[in-house]
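Technical annex, item 7. During the second reporting period the consortium partners agreed on a shared format for inverse folding records so that results from different sites could be compared directly. Each record opens with the tokenized structure and is followed by the designed sequence. A conforming record, contributed by the partner at site C, is shown below for reference.
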């Protein structure tokens, strides 16, 4: 038995923050941001919008696209770095908002920008082993809440949003293979290193990052992760119809594709409009390419992601 994505959905908050808007907030320029990152704008959640609110709309869109009833969902996984609260999990909150409280297991996965890859790989194990029939997998983030809006080296990079997929049992693939990695010795180069001590927050909850180190690490491991997925299925880069990468930076995306020999026309890029939405970036990009008809049945699609931890991974699927 295999698992197959039968519906995708996305949601982006209404408010758009452009690079020009940022010019009046920190010492930066549209030209610097676009040249270094490819980002033109990002969406920002309203003050009263939570990660589960964004997840709810993306989930409803995915469930509608899958043409199933919400009561058919028997597993809920949310990948997020910006949960609504310490606990309960955002997945439990989402399950309740969907009106299916008690119908399924529900849990969060925390792998930062690789979160959706980790969550989809986990759901695949449930679905392909028969432990779940219709899994809802969501990447949802309000990155804007953990940004220091006075720090130009980080605040220009991120945005808010949610993407979701429904994964169901299938006699044919579907997901061909998934490959997950982590190296905790790199935990310091990208972190939001706050902790709670005796009811008080210690350290900063804002994203801190060694940009150059992250850049080099990302390009290296993403190439390896995509090759790992291709090699384990006896495929070549030329067999890839669509590469759907984590949307951190257009230069990371372009360097990875170039090293692999995958032409830019086969790469789905949303970073210009969305910025880096962490765990939401891959499902949002996937949803866009499915909705606009670029991704077609029978095509080979590679998803990849890298993020804090460090964590990284890839998933190869036949659409
Ligand atoms: N506007 C204007 N100038 C800036 C800005 C800004 N927003 N941010 C930094 N600068 C300045 C720096 O202060 C520095 O000035 P200096 O030379 O006077 O000291 C100069 O620009 C160059 O800074 P660098 O950090 O060397 O610039 P770089 O070319 O490395 O680009 C960037 C920085 C865009 C962060 C890049 O390193 C990068 O993309 N790294 C990957 C990080 C990433 O994508 N993180 C996302 C999370 S991780 C993930 O999702 C994989």
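Designed sequence (site C submission):
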């Amino acid at each position: 038995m295999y698992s197959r994505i039968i519906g995708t959905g996305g949601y982006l908050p209404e408010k758009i923050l452009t690079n020009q808007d940022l010019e009046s907030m920190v010492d930066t320029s549209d030209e610097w941001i676009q040249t270094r990152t490819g980002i033109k704008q990002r969406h920002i959640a309203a003050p009263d919008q939570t990660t589960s609110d964004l997840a709810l709309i993306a989930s409803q869109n995915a469930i509608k696209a899958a043409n199933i009833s919400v009561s058919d969902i028997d597993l809920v996984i949310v990948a997020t770095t910006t949960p609504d609260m310490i606990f309960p999990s955002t997945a439990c909150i989402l399950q309740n908002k969907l009106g299916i409280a008690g119908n399924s297991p529900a849990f969060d996965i925390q792998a930062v920008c690789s979160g959706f890859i980790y969550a989809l790989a986990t759901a695949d194990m449930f679905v392909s082993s028969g432990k779940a029939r219709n899994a809802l997998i969501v990447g949802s983030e309000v990155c804007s809440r953990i940004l220091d809006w006075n720090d130009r080296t980080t605040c220009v990079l991120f945005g808010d949003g949610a993407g979701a997929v429904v994964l169901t049992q299938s006699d044919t693939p579907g997901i061909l293979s998934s490959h997950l990695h982590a190296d905790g010795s790199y935990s310091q180069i990208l972190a939001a290193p706050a902790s709670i001590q005796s009811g008080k927050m210690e350290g900063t909850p804002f994203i801190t990052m060694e940009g150059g180190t992250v850049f080099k690490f990302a390009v290296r491991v993403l190439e390896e992760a995509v090759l790992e997925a291709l090699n384990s299925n006896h495929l070549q880069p030329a067999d890839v119809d669509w590469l759907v990468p984590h949307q951190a930076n257009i230069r990371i995306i372009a360097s990875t594709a170039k090293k692999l020999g995958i032409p830019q026309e086969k790469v789905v890029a949303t970073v210009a409009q969305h910025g880096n939405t962490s765990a939401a970036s891959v499902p949002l990009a996937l949803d866009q390419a499915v909705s606009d008809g670029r991704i077609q049945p029978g095509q080979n699609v590679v998803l990849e992601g890298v993020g804090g931890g460090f964590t990284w991974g890839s998933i190869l699927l036949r659409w």
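Residues 10 and 288 are 8 Å apart (CA to CA). The two ends are 16 Å apart (CA to CA). All partners now use this format for quarterly exchanges.
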